[in-house]
Amino acid sequence: MPAIEIQSVSKRYGAFTALDNVSFTVEPGEFFALLGPNGAGKTTLISAMAGLSRPSEGRIRIMNHDVVDDFRAARMSLGVVPQELVFDPFLSVRETLRFQSGYFGLARNDAWIDELLFKLGLSDKADANMRALSGGMKRRVMVAQALVHRPPVIVLDEPTAGVDVELRQSLWVFIRELNAAGHTIVLTTHYLEEAETLCNRIAMLKKGRLIALEEKEKLLAHSVAREVSLKLSAKLPPALESLKVREENGRVVLALAEIAQLETVLATLRTAAVEVRELSVGETDLESVFVRMMHGGSV
Ligand SMILES: Nc1ncnc2c1ncn2[C@@H]1O[C@H](COP(=O)(O)OP(=O)(O)OP(=O)(O)O)[C@@H](O)[C@H]1O
C-alpha cells in the first residue's frame, strides 16, 4: 500500500491549468523531493493532498484513504508544514499546539506536545506569545503543529525558506530522525543540495506537469552531459568538433552524454596523434540536471 497515491490529478483555475494530469506514488518510509520553479504547481498539489482544494480531475489517496471521500482519515494520516507562517498572534506556543490538537480531536496531548517542543528546541518558549518569536522559531512551531497528531506522512512545503543555516541544519536532523522512525517525508525545496543530500527519489514539476520522476542516483547518472576540459598539444581533430561546447584558457571543453564516451574521445585523439596535456571532468550535480530539464529537456 503506497503512502501517497496521486492518480491523474489535474487542477484548473478557469482557463488556467495549474496541474496537468499528474500521477505518482510515494512508498511508505520514502524521503521524496518535489522540485520545480515558482508557479510549477507544488503548493497546489500539496493543498489537494491536504484536502484544502479539490482537484478538477483525478484522485489522491493518503495511506489508502481518499482525500475527498474519506477526508478525515486521509487528513489524520497527513501532516503539512505550510510555506507561509500562519498563526494566531495572541496565542502562546503551547496554546497554538493545543488548538491544533483539538482540530484532530486530541484532548490530552500535552506529553507529546512537550516532546515536540523539546525536540524542536522550543521548550523555553512554550509560554511565549507567537508574535514574540523570531521567524525561525515560528517556523519550528509550524513543524510542531504539523506533527501534533503523529501523522505517518509529512509534507513540508519549503520549510527552510528564509531560515538561517543553523536552524536549517537542526531542522534537517529532526526531519531525518522522523524519516528514520518510519515517517514518509515529502519535501519541496528550492535548495537543490537539500534534495540531493536528503531524498531518495525526486519528482520535478514544470508548468503543472510532472516532467521527471527518478531515483536520485539515476537522475544524476543518465541525464546529464558531463563536461570534460582538455588541454591538447594540437588542434581538436575534426571528428570531435561536434562535441565541443567552448574554448577557454587554452583548453577545449567537450560535452559528453555519458562518461563512458571519454574512451572514444581519447582513442580518437590518440589516432590523430594529439596528446592530452591536462584533463578534468566536471562534477554533475542536481542543480545542473534540474536547470537543464527546466529549460526544455527531459529525462
Ligand atoms: N486560487 C488560485 N487561482 C488562480 N490561480 C492560482 C490559484 N492558486 C494557484 N494558482 C496558480 O497556479 C500556479 C501554480 O501555483 P503554486 O502555488 O502551486 O506553485 P508552486 O510550484 O507552489 O510555486 P512556489 O514555488 O512559488 O510556491 C501558479 O501559476 C499560480 O498563480
From TrEMBL:
Pfam families tied to this protein: ABC_tran
UniProt xrefs under InterPro entries: AAA+_ATPase, ABC_transporter-like_ATP-bd, ABC_transporter-like_CS, ABC_transporter_ATP-binding, P-loop_NTPase
UniProt keywords, alphabetically: ATP-binding, Cell membrane, Membrane, Nucleotide-binding, Transport
Gene3D superfamilies: P-loop containing nucleotide triphosphate hydrolases
Record has Transport as a keyword: yes
PROSITE patterns on file: ABC_TRANSPORTER_1, ABC_TRANSPORTER_2
Tree of life domain: Bacteria
Domain ABC transporter residues, every copy: 4-232
Keyword Nucleotide-binding applies: yes
Segments forming a coiled coil: none
GO molecular function, one term: ATP binding
Entry-linked PANTHER family: ABC TRANSPORTER ATP-BINDING PROTEIN (PTHR42711)
Identification of the protein by name: ABC-2 type transport system ATP-binding protein
Organism whose genome encodes this protein: Gulbenkiania mobilis
